[in-house]
Amino acid sequence: MGDSTKKVPIAGRRNILITSALPYVNNVPHLGNIIGCVLSADVFARYCRIRDYNIIYMCGTDEYGTATETKATEENCSPKEICDKYHAIHRDIYKWFDISFDHFGRTSTPEQTEVCQAIFHKLMENEWLTENTMQQPYCDTCQKFLADRLVEGTCPTPGCNYDSARGDQCEKCGKLLNPTELIDPKCKVCRNTPHIRDTDHLFLELPLLRERLENYITEMSVAGSWSQNAIQATNAWLKEGLKPRCITRDLKWGVPVPHEKYKEKVFYVWFDAPIGYISITACYTPDWEKWWKNPDNVELYQFMGKDNVPFHTVMFPSTLLGTGEKWTMMKTISVTEYLNYEAGKFSKSKGIGVFGNDAKGTNIPPEVWRYYLLTNRPEVSDTLFTWADLQAKLNSELLSNLGNFINRVLSFIAKPAGAGYDSIIPDAPNVESHQLTKTLAENVGKLVEQYIDAMEKVKLKQGLKTAMSISSEGNAYLQESQFWKLFKEDPAACAIVMKTSAGLVYLLACLLEPFMPSFTDEVLKQLNLSRETHLSFSDEKGDVDKAKKPWEFLPAGHKIGRPEPLFKELKDEEVEFFRQKFAGSQADRKLKEEADAKAVAEQLKKTKLADGNNKKEKNKSGGSSSKSKATEAEPTISKLDIRVGLITEAKKHPDADSLYVEDIDVGEGSTRTVVSGLVKYIPLEEMQNRRVCVLCNLKPVAMRGIKSHAMVLAASNEDHTKVELVEPPASAKIGERVTFPGFSGEPDGLLNAKSKVWEKIQAELHTDVQLVASYKDVPFTTSAGVCKVASIANGEIR
């Protein structure tokens, strides 16, 4: 892509530069990180695009500093390798979440060094930097000065007493610290107590910049409608009194300080990280200064979590003001509080909560995650993520409200002529005379105004709630109109209702695009409209005025696409499965996974029964009479309920590499869920639409969180290196019982596990030399013939 395609500010347009706090590169982001910065910024960026503003959205991974060095030591590789690994992880997770960066870069670039050092030189020239001797923890065991994050101890703040506070900031109370302030400090690497040593550093003289900074804050916090939590955090810093802030560190991994005395040091990550916004833009376009040194024509919006506020409202602005250059300064800051998880806090360091890659593995689509996180966005206070709440919002708001409205409208229009409109939007003259529609239009017009007002003020949660209210209005309108009756009784009125409702469907696709872009893509597809030509909500094009006349959105005669359900219900057992799966820390989960894998292996082993066990049982009675032998007769094959089944869908178990989860039709009207350990032996594509023999009366058993309600029968060779499915004839009827000539009787409801009925019978199941599946010498028989395997002769069936 050439530079001519890169966006630059345009005179006369609203030019908006959007940044998200740069996620730190040493770990996988969790849902709290995602809603706190990248997702919130993405919603605003997408909103600005449909409003036809000229915007760029810049973000990237923050890669320098102690945390990267520490992670590299843990993983026994270089900091560069750590950054490459986690940058790719972050990029892929955000891509899955549909985050629409104009550029997702990184801070470990030549551009970062260049911009950072240029700003440093300006600060030196303008005499805003001073030298000072610092006392810093030095670890004799590790033989180095310890960066702030490498020291942990008890927070000195009265009433906090958090015992895992870092040397730069307490995660619990949020107070910024120096490592020398910690009570009982320890080296994070070796857990020994460091001692204090002198080291020279450079400081940014914040007290000397105070007047300029306060003027900026006073003006911009009003002009940019800063959120209350941002103002409070900033004022707390100012009230405490600004102190010189160290901008250098005794590290190797970072931007080198271009000063003879300090050339062995690097810039402190919180000096250089916000400069990353600028250097990432420089990587996007050589015309970066048109965005960053253009305060009269560019508005800067920045998104972050509350712990980042002082660095964006005090440190970064002071740095830019100190250069004396005309920088684009932050106009609006949008800050989130914390999203907590079930009973505690999301934590990257402790591995608690749902992480980006976890969300991807749940098979819950990205638009549902985005919707839930945004309805739960912690704008003014901490909010709580719970699986039950996610289920409630999906099932009641997305499925029953939004999805139901759209599906009802489009399904009715798609019905063949005589029952509907044969997929053609009807003509609807004289709409103004239809009072119910006029009332709807007035209500929708007001809601659209409220939506725009909320979104312009970056009140994203309110914007989403307002858009969803339009769906509720639509559902009420459909009910009150009783369109299904009107179709026969008053066709003209019915046409008005359906054309208007189809317009509402389009309107919802536009208004909800910032929140759920993949949902919008699907709705536009069902409306047979292209995103490129139709997705717009700008004043200039009259889109906002049309919202007051929703029947005008889609022309009469337009043919819609094929309606399909937009959302899938989340069931109680799935919620319980996810709650169990994501309980505790990632380390706890790993131990649980290993234990579960062991249990599955044991379960599979138990299905094999040595003949000796049977003999032992028989021999216990020694020379017992024939009468007692008769009363303890061995169970026969007739007790088993083996049926012809059809695998309608097979997929990998979401939480076990060796297991498939199959939906199998066994003639009951609905399918049974079955878990099978066949991944190593049979490719997934060969499991689809396959006729199989299914044992249906085993007691259901949970295998890695999914309950298996039957067993697929398969044969294995002597050393269990090869496994093949027992297959009924292609013409065998689905659901018919597999029989064994000479053995009659009804099967047990459920096999008695204590009596080991299945294990005893299984010992007699095998394939013969002609590959026929048999019990003793009797073949598995269906109305269409016997059941066989592909190639395993004299194999064991289980």
From TrEMBL:
Residue span, TRNA-binding domain: 636-739
An individual GO BP term: post-embryonic development
EC number: 6.1.1.10
InterPro entries attached to this UniProt entry: aa-tRNA-synth_I_CS, Anticodon_Met, Met-tRNA_ligase_1, Met-tRNA_synth, Methionyl/Leucyl_tRNA_Synth, MetRS_core, MetRS_Zn, NA-bd_OB-fold
UniProt keyword annotations, A-Z: Aminoacyl-tRNA synthetase, ATP-binding, Cytoplasm, Ligase, Nucleotide-binding, Protein biosynthesis, RNA-binding, tRNA-binding
EC category name: ligase
Catalysed reactions, semicolon-separated: tRNA(Met) + L-methionine + ATP = L-methionyl-tRNA(Met) + AMP + diphosphate
Compartment(s) where it occurs, according to its Swiss-Prot or TrEMBL record: Cytoplasm
Source organism, top-level taxon: Eukaryota
A Gene Ontology cellular-component term: aminoacyl-tRNA synthetase multienzyme complex
GO molecular function terms attached to this record: ATP binding; methionine-tRNA ligase activity; tRNA binding
Region (Disordered): 604-634
Annotated Basic and acidic residues bias: 604-620
Family affiliation: Belongs to the class-I aminoacyl-tRNA synthetase family.
Protein name per the record: methionine--tRNA ligase
Provenance organism: Rhynchospora pubera
